[in-house]
Amino acid sequence: MSNTENEKTLLQTGLLYDDDIDYQISERYAKSRANRNELFTTLEGDELVEMVIRSIQDFIAEQWIGTADTNLDGIEIETIKDIKIEIRRELTKVIARFISDEHREAIVRYHARGISTAEAVALLITESSVMKRLAQRDAIGEKKLKELLISRLAYLKPGTARWPEKKYGSIWQEERQLYIQEINNTPFSTPAERIALLTKHAARVNHTLENKEHSINDLQSLTQTLTKTLESLEKLSPVDQQASENVYTPQLVGILERFTVALDTFQQIASSGDTNTLVEVMEKFALAMQPQPQQNAITGETEENAEA
Asked: pTM for this one?
């Protein structure tokens, strides 16, 4: 027999041998899947997820290192990484079988409360012992599990193409109404409550300004607080611009404006050390804090002149 014929025979033998190995591996995989299916049929909950994970871990370890009875001492780190990848891949194939109707209902309720799918999945992993186990590093891992669950559960809200209205519509409405009721019962959640609170705060700050002596820094701080409070009130209480032209400026706002101007002048003079000028400015400062007659919104005349 020639060398060429001999090499051909060896090659053919090798290919047949490889085919035999592939067949044996396929048989082992088939047996592993059958065992796994039996677990899904006979077990549930925490016991199910633990037994499936262990079954897959043992199977993959046997394929890579010949035995499942090892703590991986002496195994190269790259081999361990490959084993983890294979375990994750096998668990990914059956992830849908771990998602129960209870999990789907929980996601529907999260969505009804305005929670995003990513946040809802994170909550589910925290609250479900099954998902928490799958999120561990020896199983699927938290990052990969979140990706898998988000893609599979994002449809569980109205407006999506696959939204199962018949199955979950009533659950959504029930949770949505409960959520709205909770919001309405939360203190200061309505505009009216917030307006009342800000109004009370503005009055308190103004009373402090008018009835106590303060340092320059305290005056600045209180003024800023009052200004921001009034701005917040304005945002919460929009008034039609045309109608507001015929409304007198509130006395509180007028005091604040005069106070701000006087304070700025006082700071400039105080830094110069001019005593006479400082006394003069203080007198103007006192006058500025006194309420002034309201002006007519159209003519600019005071109410007293208007009556005359």
From this structure: 0.56
